[in-house]
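Agenda item 2: iron/sulfur cluster complex prediction
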Amino acid sequence: MDIDTKFYTSTLLNWYQTNRRDLPWRLSNNPYEIWIAEVIFQQTRINQGINYYHRFIERFPNISMLANASEDEVLKLWQGLGYYSRARNLWVTAKKVAFEMQGQFPNTFSEIKKLKGIGDYTAAAIASIAFNEPVPAVDGNVIRVISRLFTIDTPASSSKGKGEITQIAHSMIPADNPGDFNQALMEFGALQCTPRSPNCEICPLKNSCLAFKLSSIEKYPLKIIKKAVRIRHFNYLVVDDGEYLLFKKRTSGDIWENLYDFPLIETPDRYEIDKLMQTPQWKKLFNTSDICLENVSEEIIHQLSHQKIILRFYHIKITQPLEQTYYLSIVYNHVLSLPVPIIIGNYLANKFEIGATKKDNWI
Ligand code: SF4
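Presented output:
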């Protein structure tokens, strides 16, 4: 493809000077702060993630502070952002840099990419913004802009499509200002060439945009067949003896790895309470114990990227400790400090608020 790259480069840089948002990490060329920002905002909108970014940087202002924190504390700060493997990887990588690399963040794209949890996009963003290396950072915004400008007819999810887009972005990137250019292209996608309503009439690139000329903006980027959403039914048992609740640390290989949740009975479909009480998990947990089912929550739907979780909380009072060693007994005062999935965090926060007004009767 024969492209007048200078035109695109200068137009995008000029647009960026006038339209860029004043975001805190833009004032920095510190690789640590850029890394944290890029990881937080990979799957999260700016207005949803900005407070998380501030809290994270305030608590862990440098890589050494992050490396010396506990995993639970990092996950707790991350609680509600989702995609918890990102937080775990940040922590693991911080430890590697702090303890095995003398605290020196690597300064080239290829070295940065070797770090756990850092892929092409994040490595390129850090290398270009912090170290001026001319490598294109291709995120969803960049894919959309370039797909439309040049009507790329290969799905961007394929390595061929991604390769075409990366090559075009690479041909535009100026050697003397790669960081600003990458941010300009991403910001242009976020603010101007938006997914649903790009403002083409005032777009400085409209005369060069093939999708605009062909009135086929909706077609680009080429749609990808989405992975089927898995539907799961979670029945959470909030086992409460008046002082403690039972929790379990989730293990690997499933969502919410290393977060804590209540005893869980996952069922193949919706189970009413009678049927739930017949499950081996229920029988094993409560055995012959006296229990009182105090409350069953409304059904809650929690949507994740590839899973839809349909769940209920069953608040169960017990009068004697259960004969079990599988779950942890966590005293009321500590439950809010556990890193938990946001859906459980909301449940607990709600219950604690009630507890504050009914001191002796927490739930
Ligand atoms: S003309 Fe429209 S579709 Fe083309 S780059 Fe501009 S905003 Fe995007």
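Discussion summary: Confidence is low (pLDDT under 50) at residues 354-363.
Owner for follow-up: CH.
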